[in-house]
TrEMBL record:
Belongs to the LysR transcriptional regulatory family. The keyword DNA-binding applies. This is DNA-binding transcriptional LysR family regulator. Residues 5-62 form the HTH lysR-type domain. InterPro entries: LysR_HTH_N, LysR_subst-bd, WH-like_DNA-bd_sf, WH_DNA-bd_sf. It holds the Pfam family HTH_1. GO terms for molecular function: DNA binding. PANTHER family: HTH-TYPE TRANSCRIPTIONAL REGULATOR (PTHR30126), HTH-TYPE TRANSCRIPTIONAL REGULATOR CYSL (PTHR30126:SF39).
Amino acid sequence: MTRLPDIASLQLLVLVGEQGSLTAAAAGVGMTQPAASKRINALERRFGFRLLDRSRRGSVLTAEGTLVCGWAGRVLDELAVLTDGVQALQRQRTAQLTVAASLTVAEHLLPAWLGEFRRTSPELHIGLDVMNSRRVCEVVRRGTADLGFIESPGELDGLHSRTVAHDRLVLVVAPGHRFARRRHRPVGPQELAGTRLVHREPGSGTRDTAELAAAHHGVELVAPLLELGSSSAVRSAVLAGAGPALVSELVVGADLLSGDLIEIRTEDLELRRELRAVWRQAAHPTGPAADLLAHALRHSGRRRELRAEAPPESVP
């Protein structure tokens, strides 16, 4: 015997043994009686012995047929285990989602998006990598992450993107800093470029936005006073009085309300930015990545509605 019997023929043989009728077995597998008889005949020729005793009262397994039927049943059971296992692996594979996010998005926006998403997809395993925007783009291009969230401006070679939120950088100082005494006199591009700031590292969206805003006026930021690896570290340094910094409003909003930090107005500087989801391949993400993006967009829409409903701030 050089070829394995086909699965449909084995299923047919097992059904004949269970029901004692070739006609009933054929109906059970969606086959005509002549076609079923032809399959059993083919099995008998391949094996070299009869599997069924046929009579007007039905079809009965021969002694050899009974043995083969038992073995076939075990094969079909193991095949079911194989099929179920493969389907489980497929479900597990499609249930994985790897997300890469910049620090500001990861700390201040993504927790709400993921929390809402997990309530609708509790079985989904989500892996999150937090890094600066430049690295996010790199891992998404390599396919290491299914979806990324960045805060960097500019073109994104090889990636598709969608704006999911808006943010702005604010110039902040501790109350004791000399800038705090001139908070109503704005800082322009030239003065900002000549001021040593507490900065994020190169490649971060915050740093890129600040440098682009200065470059728009033909100036370049001087070397930083401090260069730190997270927005939280920058915030802490400013609170400690290290110096001024351009920081996301998301990061220091509560400090501005409490008076722990002072916002210094800027002039002629474009410090607003779009926070974007990025992905490669198709024009639109698919599967769990598409679902997470939809949650982010809905959440962002609610934030805009709340801001629109909020009463205008009084200006002293």
